[in-house]
Specification:
The structure is a single chain. With 377 residues, this protein is an alpha/beta fold. It has a domain of 214 residues: FAD/NAD(P)-binding domain, CATH 3.50.50. The chain contains nine helices and 18 strands. The strands form three sheets. Strands 1, 2, 8, 9, 10, 11, 17 and 18 form an eight-stranded mixed β-sheet that branches. A seven-stranded mixed β-sheet has the order 6-5-13-14-15-12-16, with helices on both faces. Strands 3-7-4 form a three-stranded antiparallel β-sheet. A hairpin with a 3-residue loop joins strand 14 and strand 15. It is globular and about 65 Å long. The N and C termini lie far apart (72 Å). It binds flavin-adenine dinucleotide (FAD). Flavin-adenine dinucleotide binds next to helix 1, strand 3, strand 12, strand 16 and helix 5.
Amino acid sequence: MKEFDAIIIGGGLSGSSTALNLSKKGYSVLIIEKEATGIIKPCAGGMASSMKQYLPLDIDQAIESKIRNVEFRWESSDNVNADLSGESPFWIIRREKLDQLLLDEALKNGIEILRPAQVEEIISQNKTWRIKCSHKDIYKSKYLVIADGSQSQWAGYFNLGPRKPKFANTIALRLKGLGNIPKDSVRFEFGFIKYGFAWAFPLKDSVNIGLGTFINNKLLEDEALNNKVLKSFGFEDLSFEKVHKKLRIWNGTHKLNGDRVVAVGDAASLCDPFLAEGIRPSLISSYFAAESIHQCLSSNKSDLNTYSIKINNEWGKSMAWGKRIAQIFYRFPKTGYQLGVKRKTAPKRIAQILSGQMSYEDIAKRVIKRLLTNSQG
Ligand SMILES: Cc1cc2nc3c(=O)[nH]c(=O)nc-3n(C[C@H](O)[C@H](O)[C@H](O)COP(=O)(O)OP(=O)(O)OC[C@H]3O[C@@H](n4cnc5c(N)ncnc54)[C@H](O)[C@@H]3O)c2cc1C
């Protein structure tokens, strides 16, 4: 029976990028993926271009738009525009293409993938994982990576991430044509969706549209309202398939590793609870998971604690503020829109958040400083 350095459960963005990062270091990897072929992911594909630092390959083929402008609206009016001039900080990528590029490159480096396959049982024996799959074969590995996404079955089993995960409710559509969305612009539409917002991100010849609610587990079941939102993006023919997805969002600082096991991406509950940004934390967590496993394999230690610490520092601290901002903004969205989005400096800050130059923590500290200065003056 062949033994791998690492077995990864889930071959989406996080699983494929962890596999690629490990394969670049020369490790043997097996991905176990439950779907037969790459399915279209309900993901709008908005990604900070600064993330290329975590990608060990050229992803030009997956980039469909380079965004120069961000538009915010309150119920189809009261527009605010943020100019993302200069070096393009925000891309719209075709998600299925990005996942495939990562997987193909990892396969070229010698990783293996088993699909479609479901993991049925995981046992630890003499510091080795023994993983039993649906067709009864057993695979062995030294390390285990949980990358099975928002509906993760295994993160909870290993006590990784929050005990009670929080979810955003989302609807995703890919509509043909660009509606009224300019080619190099993304739009955030507030006011229509209670406890959330809608977004439209353009690909070359279609638009990824999303509707999301982020607190109180609010459902998106008002069809007439949903259609009104789609019409606000310039679409009349709404006979397209809508995909409903519960997206696991960040919900506190938690351990993301156990003994020889880590969770990455959505399985680790890393998605931004304010704007649903999940590509960035998926790539960051995959990168550092591979680094930590490499450190263990190359030094014969098995302490993965550095991984949890790194992710909580690099991402969790900002998300703690993102969660607070979401709780206030989505409860009082009109005030949030007027006082936050419409501030004179907002466009610049928004550009900095989307490009990854600024975190929610930086923004919150600025606001607190401003409030303190005003109250003293
Ligand atoms: C509507 C919507 C729009 C979004 N838009 C954006 C955006 O514009 N920008 C952004 O940054 N983020 C966005 N996100 C978030 C982003 O899509 C996710 O954070 C990202 O997909 C996480 O990748 P992942 O690999 O962790 O999970 P996934 O991509 O979900 O991959 C998980 C994989 O595991 C497999 N799997 C599941 N269970 C098992 C199992 N038991 N055994 C084996 N395999 C299994 C699945 O088949 C899948 O291939 C959006 C999310 C939604 C829902």
